[in-house]
Design brief:
With about 525 residues, the chain is α/β, with parallel strands linked by helices. Helix content is about 35%, strand content about 25%. It contains 17 helices and 24 strands. β15 and β16 form a beta hairpin. The relative contact order is 0.11.
């Protein structure tokens, strides 16, 4: 380093990820002004940066601080630089001395139910800490349609935006306190979220998302300064939301495809994220198609009589002895049961079928209207925890929507299930759902199990990747552009297939050979049967 020189650290290779984050920190040493060199402070700083970076703008808020910091630091300072929406570099911050090792950003997953924030060290790409909580918008409605309707009014939109910002700021406060980071030091944010959550986060009217022809306000919001949104970090920090594809295939799905790498592989792959919607992407490096079917509320426990979120006390796994009918269950954290979460509901439905308690249409064979999973004397509530006929009907509609969407995609590209070489399961629900139960009820396709890959929170990981890498941001934009989106809301073909999917695991059992074999072995099906 020489006088008036700059050390620029960027493009650092970390395996297959080249670190080129949304913002950069540069240590710079400037020559002191004198009677022979009386250039203005801000001009002196900008001129040095321009030599290697090109034009740099300095906002007034930062301009006011430049003289004092330069004087205090003896003309040795660290600058934080970001990009504006136009691509122009902006001077976001100025600190005395060399603070390049304190370079922080946030990767955020805004789910309809849960919000997760990762504090990321942008110098090495590592996650320093994680904080999560329920989305504060739940207070206004658990399901996404309720929030869309509320967000269609100015007051409602303001309430919903404030709710998600309050949630995020609370989580940010927890992270910076725990890890001894100043809010101003957080200089970038990347967000993975579905299309509606992005609209509510940015304060954009979501009303047309659920009205034909289902056109959102924006799919690619680009970069927005944190201060405009009300995030309590560096107000000039760029906030980048992963691009959406359409009203029901959002940036969280684009993030999942990015993490899976299916868009780079010659193999035909299938990506499924079952959350608020059942979002499906199919394809390879040559083409991508996608669609979504309403899925989430039933599987999140939101519409079951004793349904609940995945919290301590939730029944998360169920087994039924086919000979005695005795129920074996586990709960989250091993505490007395309070209700049943999504994985428990899927297990329960699969076990009721395999035990011969319900038929393939989901009806109880003995005419009852409910099945006791946990008797009152074992529950924390002192009441029976049950799955009802209405619950089963809701679950059938949920899994039927996913089935129908998948069938429609396969037909549209002329492929069969047997052509799929890799099946990626995304999301928190997919991470904990028991694969065999999901296949038994027909929620997941009956593929060889070694082709199935759990991705976990791919929305959050995709956000981390685009936070850290310009290459990944470009990839994400390309993925969104290259997905051919099928709108199912007005599709008669989808409705026809939906009706055919309202059986366990499907009307045509040949689509589910391992489930068919289980039913035959248990004497619940004749060997030559293919349909109901």
């Amino acid at each position: 380093m020489t006088d008036k020189g700059v050390i620029l650290v960027e493009g650092v290779n970390r395996g297959d990820l080249i670190l080129e984050p949304l913002t950069r920190k540069i240590y710079i040493e400037l020559g002191e002004p004198s009677l022979n060199d009386n250039q203005a402070d801000v001009d002196r700083l900008v001129a040095a940066l321009r030599k290697i970076l090109g034009p740099v703008t300095v906002p007034l808020t930062v301009m006011r601080r430049v003289p004092g910091v330069l004087l205090e630091a003896g003309w040795r300072v660290t600058v934080t630089l970001g990009e504006e929406a136009s691509g122009t570099l902006i001077l976001m911050d100025l600190e005395p001395g060399n603070t390049t090792n304190r370079h922080y950003g946030l990767a955020v997953d805004i789910g309809t139910t849960t919000v997760v924030v990762y504090l990321v060290n942008m110098q090495n790409g590592q996650i320093m800490g994680t904080a999560a909580d329920y989305n504060g918008q739940i207070f206004f409605g658990e399901d996404i349609l309720t929030r869309i309707y509320l967000g269609s009014t100015p007051d409602g939109l303001e309430q919903l935006q404030r709710a998600i910002l309050d949630t995020l700021n609370k989580l940010i406060k927890q992270l910076i306190k725990k890890h001894n980071v100043e809010a101003r030091e957080i200089s970038a944010v990347a967000v993975g979220a579905n299309t509606t959550m992005v609209h509510l986060f940015l304060g954009l009217d979501p009303s047309r998302i659920c009205k034909a022809p289902y056109i959102p306000t924006v799919n690619s919001p680009g970069i927005i300064p944190a201060g405009q949104l009300g995030l309590q970090i560096n107000p000039l920090a760029p906030v980048y939301c992963l691009p959406s594809v359409g009203s029901y295939v959002g940036g969280d799905v684009v993030a999942g495809v990015l993490v899976s790498g299916l868009h780079l592989s010659p193999e035909l792959s299938l990506f499924v994220d079952i959350g608020t919607n059942g979002e499906i992407i199919m394809g390879n490096r040559d083409w991508l198609v996608g669609c979504a079917g309403a899925a989430g509320p039933a599987l999140e426990g939101g519409v079951a009589k004793n349904g609940m979120r995945a919290e301590p006390g939730a029944v998360d796994s169920v087994r039924i002895d086919p000979d005695t009918g005795k129920v074996y269950y586990t709960t989250i954290d091993g505490v007395p049961p309070v209700g049943i979460c999504g994985s428990g509901l899927v297990d329960c439905l699969a076990e009721l079928l395999l035990a011969g308690i319900i038929d393939r249409s989901g009806r109880f064979k003995d005419g009852r209207d409910r099945f006791v999973v946990v008797p009152a004397e074992e529950s924390a509530t002192g009441q029976d925890i049950v799955i009802t006929q209405a619950d089963i009907n809701n679950l059938l509609r949920t899994k039927g929507a996913v089935n129908a969407a998948l069938e429609l995609l396969l037909e549209s590209v002329g492929c069969d299930l047997s052509d799929i070489e890799r099946f990626y399961v995304a999301g928190g629900f997919g991470q904990y759902l028991h694969l065999e139960s999901a296949i038994t009820i027909g929620l997941y396709p009956d593929l060889p199990r070694d082709r199935m890959v759990r991705l976990g929170n791919s929305s959050g990981e995709g956000a981390r990747l685009v936070l850290l890498s310009k290459q990944k941001r470009v990839e994400a934009e390309e993925i969104a552009r290259n997905i051919t989106y099928f709108e199912l809301n007005a599709s008669q073909a989808f409705m026809n297939k939906f009706v055919g999917s309202m059986f366990l695991p499907h009307t045509n059992l040949d689509y589910f050979p391992t489930v068919k074999e289980k039913l035959i072995q248990r004497g619940l099906l004749y060997p030559n049967s293919s349909v109901t």
